[in-house]
TrEMBL record:
<dbReference type="InterPro" id="IPR045054">
    <property type="entry name" value="P4HA-like"/>
</dbReference>
<keyword id="KW-0735">Signal-anchor</keyword>
<dbReference type="Pfam" id="PF13640">
    <property type="entry name" value="2OG-FeII_Oxy_3"/>
</dbReference>
<keyword id="KW-0732">Signal</keyword>
<feature type="domain" description="Fe2OG dioxygenase">
    <location>
        <begin position="191"/>
        <end position="311"/>
    </location>
</feature>
<keyword id="KW-0223">Dioxygenase</keyword>
<protein>
    <recommendedName>
        <fullName>Fe2OG dioxygenase domain-containing protein</fullName>
    </recommendedName>
</protein>
<keyword id="KW-0479">Metal-binding</keyword>
<dbReference type="InterPro" id="IPR044862">
    <property type="entry name" value="Pro_4_hyd_alph_FE2OG_OXY"/>
</dbReference>
<keyword id="KW-0560">Oxidoreductase</keyword>
<feature type="signal peptide">
    <location>
        <begin position="1"/>
        <end position="30"/>
    </location>
</feature>
<dbReference type="InterPro" id="IPR005123">
    <property type="entry name" value="Oxoglu/Fe-dep_dioxygenase_dom"/>
</dbReference>
<keyword id="KW-0812">Transmembrane</keyword>
<keyword id="KW-0408">Iron</keyword>
<dbReference type="InterPro" id="IPR006620">
    <property type="entry name" value="Pro_4_hyd_alph"/>
</dbReference>
Amino acid sequence: MPHQTTTTTPQRETTILSLMLITILPVSTTLPPMSTTLPPVSTPLLPLSTPVLPLSTPPLHVLDVNRGGSRHKLLEDFPREEGDSMYHGESGESFVTSIPFQILSWRPRALYFPNFATDEQCQSVIELAKSKLKPSSLALRKGETAETTKGIRTSSGAFISASEDRTGILEFIEEKIARATIKHITSIDLSSLEAFNVLRYEVGQRYVSHYDSFNPAEYGPQKSQRIASFLLYLSDVEEGGETMFPFENGSNMNIGYDYKSCIGLKVRPRRGDGLLFYSLFPNGTIDKTSLHGSCPVVKGEKWVATKWIRNKERM
């Protein structure tokens, strides 16, 4: 029988915690109440053997974030009572920062950031990229050619570094991505972020399921590796264009998946929202459940800015 996908629209459950805690807090024990002081931690990512943490909502097939309310500031600097912030070093900061997020999945580790950027910032990035768009290309595996891979990725895109944006918006967004993902991870800094890959998907365009990391057995030796991806949705999409994870929580891995069907966990694009997912386990091996793709756009247009995070700067 064909795989059936249902659509649900659950109430958004936003966690106002530091991202550092979710990526490093072992989940083999019950989480303490919010008033309990968390123990010190030292490892930046979840251990490979970490079990799945039950979510408070039923399993999702389609995530549809209900946006009510005003947008968050890019970096929320909350008022603090005396003693809330700690004494900091010369390279530190004097304020307490929080970036709201929702855990979408533990397999793969995927997090959703509502209202990560404003409408104005998203539109500015679109305008910057419009004149630079070219047909999207692929990193080819051994034996592949442009002809044999035709139709796998049909979007148009452009690579843009923050230094090319005179408005400073891309630099600001890049800094926020760094805060949410890498600034607490030892040995990884802004030099490990690739340039923004701004993409446009028109009606019928898609990207079939793939991995963002590069398997050395297929692509040859790698001097550095993509460990995570951050997608900033620059536009709403009337229909289609979801980011899909067909192998989420181990599903569909034994059905002879064709890499084209739009199944599994699907995340609807919402302008200004961000999606982070990890491609590698902490030990550096590829997480097979991080397979993902972009469903075809049915109605409207999809704009997204992708930021790939590497374990070290590419030489």
